[in-house]
Amino acid sequence: xxxxxxxINSIRIRIDQVIRFLLKEKIDILCLQETKVTDNLFxxxxxxxxxxxxxxxxxxxxxxxxxxxxRLPITRSYKKDFCEKKEKRYISITLExxxxxxxxxxxxxxxxxxxxxxxxxEEKLNFYSxxxxxxxxxxxxxxxxxxGDMNIAPSENDVWSxxxxxxxxxxxxxxIKYFDKLIKSFDWVDAVRYFNGDxxxxxxxxxxxxxxxxxxxxxxxxxxxxxxxxxxxxxxNIQVLKKFRNYSQPSDHVPLILxxxx
DNA sequence: ATGTCCTTGTTACAAGGA
Length: 262
Prior knowledge:
Deoxyribonuclease I, Chain A; 23% helix; DNA-binding
């Protein structure tokens, strides 16, 4: 079973790229973030015409928005507004094999890493706390997978320069503390690191502002795939498809694929 | 460090977010 996650930065502008990706990589389930579209305008038909008949969306105008596109039947889906700010940042599904997939778009957090000066940074930490509390209290019998744009690059090899980014939102010590609390809130395994080890640099996002993004390679690993520990031995492959950053009109994030032996 | 890209509102750009 192949599960992918991709911050698409507008589904409508990149729908052709997404369809090509789904068919070429034979994806079963795709979790999208930053769809930037209300549910009534979501391109359901294009996905259905290509064999993806099961779609769950939680979108809004202009900002945020998440969706799950599936070739396999969905038995249940669930949305939650963790910070009660009417922001569409989460949707989950359950499959017939009783696997539950959580799709998140965590807040970016603004520029200034100071909760007193920057309400967006406060919201980001708050959102992490709310999700942590939720998983701590939750008692589900389903097999769990969590994916999405978490907007935090937790370790040194998740950023191009640990020293230069230590005070930059996405890699600050306080954020990493919240990230660690969340991963400890349940039996989570960071599947990308589990599969690749800790030593190599892995990035999933390169800023649009760096024109020579490939040459400079100033990337960060903001997109994540976590699996419940009991699923970790079922991981057959993990891919971070850097080539998608090279195509014309790219998203600033590339897709990640988890291949599970299920 | 703020060079780009995307959306919206209003009608060729500016604002806001990332």
